[in-house]
Amino acid sequence: MYTLLVVDDEMFTRKGIIKKVPTEPDGISVVLEARDGKEGLAIAQYSPVDIVLSDVRMPRMDGIKMCQEIRRLYPDCVIIFLSGYSDKEYLRSAISMQALQYIDKPVDTGALQEALSQAVSYCNEIRYSRKFVREANRKRLARLLLSSPPSNGQLAVALSESGHTYEDFRDSLTVIFQFLPGPDASDEKLGFHDTLEQCQEMISEIIRNKHLPFLITDYRENHLILHFLSTPDRMVSSFSRAFWENLMREISEKTAAYPHFVSIGPIVSSPEEIYRSYNAAAINLQTLFYTGINSISFADEMPTDSYSMSQELLDAIKQTIHNGEQEKCFRMLKELEESFRSHPGTLISNTKENFYRLLSWLISYVKNKTGSDVLDTENYLWELIFSANTLDELISFTRNYISLSFDAIQSGREASASVLIKNTIIDNYQNPDLDIQFLSDRLNLSVSYLSFLFKQETGSTINHYMNEYRIWKAKELLVNTNRKIADISDAVGFANQNYFAKTFKKLAGCSPSVYRDLHVEG
């Protein structure tokens, strides 16, 4: 990884030092040698060096003069001086060189290897620092290009600091990945920032493996932005539409665990025009509300037609509810869904307003019919509708509302969603497959709807309650049995013992073993 240059006019000393140098792929991998400062400088001029181990007094050019010249070539080069007792006064002039170490002659093997180990560590820090700065500059450039054309001065500085040139952007396009918060986002194991970081790493790896030049940055709270660039022999426009679609599909499948949309902007011909590609992709994102989670779309496919539910259709749906015709009502809801899906140019806010009209009437109707606020959602209906990320979620909400409404009207009873959820958790807490999707399948309610209702009724999340109940049962087993902690972890439904320990400590304030010691006498 790093190149060491050993410079000493005494051949036996020089060769002896080289034999003692530990070489390894992650440390010093190349060792060069020179007989004096002049030869050492000549070598450094055609072969970059990371570490210089040099004698001070040498003919033709001394070590200090040579290192001064090498530092002009490689400012971060690490310098280690060799010195005899008589060189101590001479070495004072080398203080300005900020040498990492001074090793006395004759050279002690331990001192040499310790100095070289420190040098490698310093080189690692420099490399990491350079990488961090380079990545920060690349992100800064990626974000700068999203706004209206930057000034020539801003652009020139940003290009230079990121290591890019104007020519890299003469043929480029922008892609937006919009990641969607989960239904129980406040209680996720990983924060949303961590999710973006993980996805950024996965996406970057796939693109690097394709040998495509690109910039990537997070933007706002849930976007990853990619700018694809050109090289002298590979223009962005030379790749087919199918290539970009297949690449985005490969990335989408890799990140499928994190719900998202992918919008591909048009190709532009300069860095000043990148914002046009970005804006087109951003506007196009709204159409993906109608196509569903993890869908991909090109901005040039942006439709303009729109749809709105007619008063006649709304009245017809109301009549099916009034007549108790549930299946007919669902058929009409399906027709409504297909109408919106075939008109992706409809503004999302308009679509949600249409469903709000239907559901707000439904809540009032059921309340009047049963004499109680069975659905218990009137005050936060718009919040529930607004939280829908896709038309699929909106339809699912509506089906759930209609199903509950028919049940309430027929039975005249009021049921609490949170009680049903808690009872299902209590009955199944030992099952490691118990999660929100499990509850959704059992209760025949959508994941988003379940999470929203539970939060509204209890003020907590389903995941939090699930963990609290499992830890409560674990405490009982810790105090009342001699079972191993690993067995208890399995018994209360944790598939991962490390996650069990982490969750236990978070909720109980101590580890399972400490809890047992504190609560078991003798």
From TrEMBL:
Name a biological process GO annotation: phosphorelay signal transduction system
The answer to whether UniProt assigns keyword Phosphoprotein to this entry is yes
Residues forming coiled coils: none
Keyword Glycoprotein recorded:
no
Q: Which UniProt keywords apply?
A: DNA-binding, Phosphoprotein, Transcription, Transcription regulation
Q: Give the matching Gene3D superfamilies.
A: 3.40.50.2300, Homeodomain-like
Q: Which GO terms describe its molecular function?
A: DNA-binding transcription factor activity; sequence-specific DNA binding
State what this protein does: May play the central regulatory role in sporulation. It may be an element of the effector pathway responsible for the activation of sporulation genes in response to nutritional stress. Spo0A may act in concert with spo0H (a sigma factor) to control the expression of some genes that are critical to the sporulation process.
The protein, known as:
Stage 0 sporulation protein A homolog
